[in-house]
Every structure is written in structure tokens, then in C-alpha cells.
Amino acid sequence: MATMSDTLAHAVSHRQEIRHSRFVAHAAPVDDAVAALAFIAQVGVPDATHNCWAYRLGGEYRSSDDGEPAGTAGRPILAAIDGQGLDRIAVVVTRWYGGIKLGAGGLVRAYGGTAAECLRTAPRQPLTRMASVWLHCGFDDLGTVHNLLAQHHALKEREDFDAEGACLRVALPAERLQDLKNQLRDATRNRVHVREQPPA
């Protein structure tokens, strides 16, 4: 089984002053890009000099320098996320300019360092590896199937009906999949068909 990253247990923040510029990092767990952009909009400070940010959602990521020289803010924040082995999070680092220029290297260290320090001390929560499966059951077994799905914290992503019964696509924690299969088999005398690939 692949090793999973952690996410944050809850939103956190960290502030520090570097050569008279104030830097404040805010980080939070997010489920998707819409939630990440909503968090960035929520914690950004309109009258600050810059609100630079990055988010990571598995293989999907974005970052913004928000007017700082290219590559000096957003990418170092993203590097801090990856350096801490975190996933499904968004980080915003807000800067109030204090009158002393930091230079490109100084900006990279300031943004990346503020983000990294914020994340280093934050409480973590392991991400659960999910499995998606397709189930086909007769109408008579539908109530039993729904009860067992609830017991195993399975999310019903789709439900279609045909002449024989229902076809459901569900997602559940991967470690619960075998138990669910066994219980479905026992409760319905093996009448529920479970596939790990979509039906043809």
C-alpha cells in the first residue's frame, strides 16, 4: 500500500518580522481547488503589500507571487508544503513591506521560511487512502446494502437503476473494502456483485 501524506488537522498561522517587513502565514486543510481559492480569498489582507500563496492537492498545485519578483514567493511556499510532506492544503503568506528591500534570495528565504515554520509545528492528520468500487444488487437487497455502506463510512457517488436492481458507485477507506465485500457476501448470500472496474 502506498504511503500517504498527512494534511493539517485544522487551520494554523505563524507570524514573524524580517528586516522590518511583517510576514504572516495562514495554512488550512482543503478538499479541492474551489475550497483552496476560497481560503486564499478569505485570509488575504487587501491593504497588505502582497498576499502570496500556494496549494497542493495530490498532483494538482498552483502558486502565486502576487506582484513579488517571479519565483520568489509562490514557489518557495509550495516547496515548504512539499518539504513538510503535506498534501491537500493551502498556504497564504501575507507581507507588509517595512522599507528595506530583501532581494530575490531574501524573499525566497522569507516566504519559504515563514510557510515552513508555520507548517513544521502544525498538528497533522493522516490522509486516508480511498478505494472506489461498483456494486450491483437486486431491489430486495438494496436496504441491506445501504446499511452496510453506512457502517463502513462509504460515500455513495452514483446510483443508477436497471430492470434487475441498482448499480452504485461508492468510495470508502481502502482498509475497509475487504470487510465490506465479506459482509455483503454473507448478508445477501453472494447476490451483490462488487467490481473494482466500472461495469462494461
Structure description:
The structure is a single chain. By secondary structure, this protein is of the alpha+beta class. The chain has helices spanning 33-43, 74-83, 103-120, 142-151, 177-188; strands at residues 6-8, 12-18, 21-29, 50-57, 60-64, 89-96, 124-126, 130-138, 155-161, 165-173, 193-195. A five-stranded antiparallel β-sheet has the order 2-3-6-4-5, with helices on both faces. It has a four-stranded antiparallel β-sheet with strand order 9-10-8-11, with helices on one face. Strand 9 (155-161) and strand 10 form a beta hairpin.
In short:
The chain is an alpha+beta fold and 200 residues long. It is built from five helices and eleven strands, in the order E-E-E-H-E-E-H-E-H-E-E-H-E-E-H-E.
Q: Provide the gyration radius in Å.
A: 23 Å
Structural category: alpha+beta
Mean pLDDT: 91
Specify the overall morphology: elongated
Number of strands: 11
Question: H/E series, N to C?
Answer: EEEHEEHEHEEHEEHE
Fraction of residues in β-strands? 35-45%
User: Looking across the biggest beta sheet, what order are the strands in?
Assistant: 2-3-6-4-5
Gap between N and C termini, in Å?
Answer: 27 Å
Secondary structure: elements and pairs:
Elements: E1 6-8, E2 12-18, E3 21-29, H1 33-43, E4 50-57, E5 60-64, H2 74-83, E6 89-96, H3 103-120, E7 124-126, E8 130-138, H4 142-151, E9 155-161, E10 165-173, H5 177-188, E11 193-195
Features:
200 residues; alpha+beta
